[in-house]
Amino acid sequence: MPVRLYNTLTQKVEDFVPLVPGHVKLYVCGLTTYDLAHAGHARTNTTFDVLSRFLRARGFEVTYCRNVTDVDDNIVKRARENGEEPLALSKRMSEQADRDLAAIGCMKPEIEPRVSTSMDDIIAFIEKLIAKDHAYVAETPDGNDVYFGVRSFAEYGKLSRRNLEELRQGASERLAEGSSDVKRDPLDFALWKAAGKEPFGFDSPWGKGRPGWHIECSAMASRHLGDHIDIHAGGMDLIFPHHENEIAQSEAVSGPQFSNYWMHGGFLEIDKEKMSKSLGNFVTIKDLLERNDPEGFRYYVLGTHYRGPLSFDVEKKEDGRVVFPGVDEAERRIDYLYSTRDTLETIANGNVATDSNVLQGQAKIVDEAREGVLNALDRDLNTPQALSVLAELGKAANEIVMQFPKLKNDPAKLEAVRGLAAKAVRALDAACAPMGLMQADSATYWARTRARRLRLRGLEAAAVDAKVVARSEARKAKDFAHADALRKQLAAWGVEVFDAGDASTWKITI
């Protein structure tokens, strides 16, 4: 079946057909780097990281461009408050965002332009709009601004389905940048803003200043992907005015369609409000990863369809700890997948293939898992359905594991189960890859989760080891009452003990 994606422009789920067969040009609006990235940003970037991974898994070549907005009024304001240079603040926040997004498994885009190094392209784009009578220069007390004349673009409003006259009647500073006495129409928006007394700015034909937010993405997308692209994506809050204005600017210069498909991710909400910096109700990615594993968060995000709202629950415990129950549950599911893979690898002989009739139902699930995930993602990135395929695969894998001790006296079937286990390991990795899950080796995963969970519980690994050893000694001495008491103490610490003969290992739970 074809890849099908919801297109905000047409408000329909459509077959995806790229401009150039086999090649996808994808532009995603990146961060404005004046503060730490929050969990809402993490959701948006995870969504389009999955899109990029999935399209590649379906055989497309993807050129992924995600910008960094490092020139913005918010950056200038925050830098002034901090007593630092705007670009220094932006660089610091950008580098932290890179670390945070990498931690949650988001691949680095092939192209990542910055506004501060794209000024020539931005100025050239504005000059084209002026030459085509879609923009005009306006004198202000601070210097020259440049505005886009909204009424010069007949199709303005086609993305957001907004009527120009209704917008005009309700125009205010919320919709219209700058001073109404220098603009020809209150709806006109700024392409260039005079710096005035602000020392931070860039030279231009209109004097020192800074570009407007919307023109930046039009110029960078055109420079790096061309005048017409396949997919333009971002959060749902960007539909209007940002993406509406991008369409107007870009198509005023180069004609339709600027982007054939527009994709928008839903909000991540706290108390039914969008998580945002302006509302001050955000949890940073950095803080989130102090509490939870990055793959647990990723699984949590993928459990809700990308276009729907995702409720981010925050719970404060009596002891003052802040926990995220939904992410905790998702992390337990990731634990389950890693444990399943570990057990399969323990019994598997990777060099043995099997056509055995042992466990035919499980073998079918193993064979079809990767394609099942891709089929789900074909349907407008249906990640909840894709996760259900993984759950089915995990169940089948554990049924394979359960057969192993039953077949000790049947070498032929035992060999077949070993081979099927090896195949299941490969299937699990292949099915997880398009969603960016289970990208760590087991040793890395368990080491990082153990270290964090011990820290959160105020425990030392040495103390747990000592109690586990003491329990093992009690078992050897057949002092089962003491052994059980020690197990209960460990359980109270959140420690699970696994016995294999005289040896015992342990894991700490979320």
Summarize the structure.
The protein contains 16 helices and 17 strands. It has helices spanning 39-57, 73-82, 86-103, 119-131, 164-169, 213-225, 239-254, 285-291, 294-302, 325-347, 360-378, 383-403, 411-432, 442-457, 461-476, 480-492; strands at 4-7, 12-15, 23-28, 61-66, 135-140, 143-148, 189-194, 209-211, 229-235, 259-265, 268-270, 273-274, 310-311, 315-316, 322-323, 495-500, 503-508.
Describe this structure in words.
- With 510 residues, the chain is an alpha/beta fold.
- It has three domains: 288 residues, HUPs (Rossmann fold), CATH 3.40.50; 95 residues, Four Helix Bundle (Hemerythrin (Met), subunit A) (Up-down Bundle); 50 residues.
- It is 47% helix and 15% strand.
- The chain contains 16 helices and 17 strands.
- The chain has a four-stranded parallel beta sheet with strand order 4-3-9-10, with helices on both faces.
- Strand 16 and strand 17 form a beta hairpin.
Write the layout of secondary structure elements.
Blueprint: E1 4-7, E2 12-15, E3 23-28, H1 39-57, E4 61-66, H2 73-82, H3 86-103, H4 119-131, E5 135-140, E6 143-148, H5 164-169, E7 189-194, E8 209-211, H6 213-225, E9 229-235, H7 239-254, E10 259-265, E11 268-270, E12 273-274, H8 285-291, H9 294-302, E13 310-311, E14 315-316, E15 322-323, H10 325-347, H11 360-378, H12 383-403, H13 411-432, H14 442-457, H15 461-476, H16 480-492, E16 495-500, E17 503-508
Parallel strand pairs: 3-4, 3-9, 9-10, 11-13
Antiparallel strand pairs: 1-2, 5-6, 6-7, 7-8, 11-12, 14-15, 16-17
